[in-house]
Amino acid sequence: MASRSLGGLSGIRGGGGGGGKKSLSSRNAAVERRNLITVCRFSVKTLIDRSCFETIDDSSPEFNNFAAILEQILSHRLKGQVTWFGYESPRSFWDYIRVACRKVSQNCICSIENMENVSSSRAKGRAWIRVALMEKHLSEYISTALRDFKTTRRFYEDGAIVLGEEANMLAGMLLGLNAIDFSFCLKGEGLDGSFPAVIDYTPYLKYIQSSDSISSDEEELRTLGSSGSESSTPENVGPPFLMDENSWFNKCKRVKQKYQLTLEQKGYLEELLRLRENQLSESVSQNKILLQRIEDSDLAHKLEKEQLEYIIVELQDQLKSYQSLDQLSAEVSLSQTSLDPGQSQEGDGKQDTLNIMSEGMELTGSYV
Predict the structure, then answer these.
(1) Please, are residues 257 and 52 in contact by the beta-carbon 8 Å criterion?
(2) With 0-12 CB in 10 A as exposed, 13-18 as middle and 19+ as buried, what is 115?
(3) CA dist., res. 30 & res. 39, Å (int)
(4) 28-204 adopts what CATH topology?
(5) How far is residue 361's CA from residue 354's CA, in Å, rounded to a whole number?
(6) Residue 334's closest CA among 324, 323, 326, 322?
(7) 291-338 per-position pLDDT tens digit
(8) Is the full-model pTM beyond 0.85?
(9) Alpha carbons 156 and 211: distance in angstroms, whole number
(10) Is 156 helix (H, G, I), strand (E, B) or coil?
């Protein structure tokens, strides 16, 4: 009895251990996705702050970190490519972008494919990130790729960031980068595809508010401390009450820069909205034209069908009338032959007599 009870307990513990491993695995996957999305938000924020004072290029550490983070996100749980022999070779996120972003109008996919100095798939993906940022279309590329759920499901495994709820956050997060003017050299060392991208987490582990930053402490707390308790929020988060003239000048400068950036983003979004409204109105007008054409063709087909049916009825009536006339004439001829057989013979005899007399007259005339 004791042995049986111990065996049952061990079985229960074994089953619970399997469930615990599964829950731990799902927790680790969720934490990994949340970490990458959070650090990407931090990276976008630092890029926007830095762009107010200098041009963002390949030498900017903020951009290099952002490119590494985006590469890690797009490579998260990416499926390998299965060969003919059943082996699975690694893939780059460029293979997914190349297929999923074909529908973007005036895309740069073909241009990057034809670049001579970029050979590896990973290098092409890094070149695409730079070109999309310079074109201010990175968010549009990502949104278009994520909407193609069938292709995304074909390239990524379950639990990938691009297949979860974090994907919508990523597309909206990258929209703010359209207000930044980037300048990149597509022949630099940043396109080297022989080494994987490494994320530098140290700038985000201890974020110090600088005097040149355009974001305030209140925004930082709303971004990071929304899920924390109220007791963890410091009481004095704002600047001191007494500030000198230089501090006030820096504060006004930051507010002005933030206002200018917001105004530029507002103008860009309004322009984008206007373009989308124009496209929608054109689509509606084209749809109306197509519907009108369909209605006209249906009406024409109905009229043509009615005309053909009328012609068929007329032809059938004429055919019936011809058949009745032929039948009537045949009956009349049969009735005549059946009623006067002697008259027909007498007429034939008279005709023969006339023929003989005419031949005799011709002979006498020739002798004379």
Answers:
(1) yes
(2) middle
(3) 14
(4) Methane Monooxygenase Hydroxylase; Chain G, domain 1 (1.20.58)
(5) 11
(6) 326
(7) 999 999 999 999 999 999 999 999 988 888 888 887 888 877 777 776
(8) no
(9) 43
(10) strand
